[in-house]
From TrEMBL:
PANTHER family: ACETYL-COENZYME A SYNTHETASE, ACETYL-COENZYME A SYNTHETASE 1. It comes from Leisingera methylohalidivorans DSM 14336. Coiled coil: none annotated. The keyword Acetylation applies. GO terms for biological process: acetyl-CoA biosynthetic process. Residues 19-391 form the AMP-dependent synthetase/ligase domain. Keywords: Acetylation, ATP-binding, Ligase, Nucleotide-binding, Plasmid. One of its GO terms (molecular function) is acetate-CoA ligase activity. This is acetate--CoA ligase.
């Protein structure tokens, strides 16, 4: 339960110092696994002390409440201490993907007027140094380790010199705490603003949607540059006093399976892309590992296809529980909760206290859709972690709200049992021969074919039908592209979906364009198909199409 701070509210106090004050300073907060095989245990007391040193370091360099601190580094202990120390000092924390190129980094730092950057020597030299002198707002660059390039401060010695006692700034619930960047379909990325009061919902949703309890061993595999890596990879688990597994290495199937078995992971929060990669490797790849410690599995990033839910139930003894939320919501809104019956392919139900609706716009304003009808997924604007702004974009922010609702831009339907089903982004909807087709439905049918590992579906213009469905797929191990296989996959889709909905053409690809958070970028496929501007692709992880 969130404990407050002498009448104020500060995320850092709730995540670290509160537990130390309550006598839990010796409990492990972070079990860090280095990519070189090393291990490090950070207790809540260690985290409180490191973050206080970091806060003192910021103050010693003249930083003030409200200044902005950016992090550009992998999953290393300094990132977690830096995030908590930034918030403890009343500054605003913004994570960046370490895999970003120089231009997307520069764009985000310019939009947010970055004052401090925490990074590594290698990342600084390759990605920051070329344009540092063009960022007048940047006052301080902190570099992990004992040495630093010219003009930077080595974090190791600086933290040793800084004091371990720091009185957490008494921020209020509406004081700025976090800025997360999310890609826009056109133009520059959006800087989504969140406040310290969001911690109340981080704590609540972590308990309700993920089953986080004190002492539980929890592993969130999300990159710390993504909102999930902050909301549910730092804040929610620490506030709920779990023991977090933090793995520095990148995805490797056997490595992940070993971590679950060796560290006795109880709660596992991952992404559909990783789950589909597990499926692609087959159940036999998991056969030698002990997964008996697992008690809850959850997935986020994009909708989880039904076959992935069924597959995980067979391999891990329980299904992955899908949930839905956005950078703008700041926390999980709809979920398949622990103990709830999972309907494969469904996002689940709104968390208690969240009012969701399926809306359509008409002459009389917004109206609720009936059971099974497709409309825009919307939420009543009354939860603590809802975004407070887009940086420097007031009109864009205002357009996200109407009649007391937050309009998500996602299309969905609600069934007779109150479960919500994702259809697609409004811009992804395909209109063909009078039918409205959501890409997720077609992709899920394609994934039922043994040869298909991943699928992305778009609509392309057609003189007769308006649009026709086109699918891009990657193949499972043991299959090679051929005309016969293309016909067989199309036949499977027609049998499952009918001729009006099934893809007219299937194109085989080595990979599909995805963001580092695992979302397939359908709009990029469509833009290339039609020769349109591709918009912001700075979060693109893989693209060998």
């Amino acid at each position: 339960m969130v404990g407050g701070l002498n009448g104020g509210l500060n995320i850092a106090h709730e995540a670290a110092d509160r537990h130390v004050a309550a006598g839990y300073g010796a409990q492990t907060a972070i079990r860090w696994l280095g990519k070189d095989g090393s291990r490090r245990e950070l207790t809540y007391g260690d985290l409180a002390g490191m973050s206080s040193r970091f806060a003192n370091l910021l103050r010693d360099h003249g930083l003030q409440q409200g200044d902005s601190v950016y992090s550009l580094m992998g999953r290393v202990p300094e990132l977690y201490a830096g995030a908590i120390g930034t918030l403890k000092a009343g500054l605003v924390y913004t994570p960046l993907f370490a895999a970003f190129g120089p231009e997307p980094i520069r764009t985000r730092m310019e939009i947010g007027s970055a004052n401090v950057l925490i990074t590594t020597a290698s990342l600084y030299r390759r990605k920051i140094a070329p344009f540092r002198d063009q960022l007048p707002s940047l006052k301080l660059v902190l570099v992990a380790g004992d040495d630093a390039p010219y003009g930077c401060v080595a974090l190791g010695p600086a933290l040793k010199r800084a004091g371990e006692a720091f009185e957490t700034v008494q921020t209020g619930a509406e004081d700025l705490a976090l800025v997360h960047f999310t890609s826009g379909t056109t133009g520059k990325p959006k800087g989504v603003v969140h406040v310290h009061g969001a911690v109340e919902y981080h704590a609540y949703s972590g308990r309700i949607a993920l089953g986080l309890t004190p002492g539980a061993v929890y592993w969130c595999t999300a990159d710390p540059g993504w909102v999930t890596g902050t909301s549910y990879g730092i804040i929610a688990p620490l506030v709920n006093r779990v023991t977090m597994i933090v793995d520095e290495a990148e995805f490797d199937l056997e490595h992940w399976y070993r971590i679950i078995a060796r560290e006795k992971v109880e709660i596992w929060y991952s992404a559909p892309t990783a789950i589909r990669m597990m499926m692609r490797a087959g159940a036999e790849a998991a056969a030698d590992y002990d997964f008996s410690s697992l008690r809850f599995l959850a997935s986020v990033g994009e909708p989880l296809n039904p076959e992935a839910v069924v597959w995980s139930g067979k391999v891990f003894g329980q299904p992955f529980h899908d949930n839905w939320w956005q950078t703008e919501t700041g926390g999980i809104m709809i979920a398949n909760l622990p103990g709830m019956e999972v309907k494969p392919g469904s996002m689940g139900k709104p968390l208690p206290g969240i009012t969701a609706g399926i809306l359509t716009a008409g002459e009389d304003g917004l109206t609720e859709c009936g059971t099974g009808e497709i409309g825009e997924l919307a939420l009543r604007r009354d939860w603590p972690s809802v975004m407070r702004a887009y940086l420097n974009e007031e009109e864009r922010f205002a357009n996200c709200f109407a009649d007391g609702w937050y309009l998500s831009g996602d299309l969905a339907a609600r069934d007779e049992d109150g479960y919500y089903w994702f259809v697609g982004r409004k811009d992804d909807l395909i209109k063909t021969s009078g039918h409205l087709i959501g890409p997720f439905e077609v992709e899920s049918a394609l994934l039922e074919h043994a040869a298909v590992a991943e699928a992305a579906v778009i609509g392309v213009p057609d003189e007769t039908a308006g649009e026709v469905v086109r699918a891009y797929v990657t193949l499972s191990r043991g299959f090679e592209p051929s005309e016969d296989l293309e016909r067989d996959v199309r036949a499977h889709a027609r049998k499952r979906l009918g001729a009006a909905v099934a893809p007219r053409a299937i194109l085989f690809r080595k990979t599909l364009p995805k963001t580092r958070s695992g979302k397939i970028m359908r709009r990029l496929l469509k833009a290339r198909e039609l020769g349109l501007p591709v918009g912001d692709i700075s979060t693109l992880e893989s693209d060998e199409t």
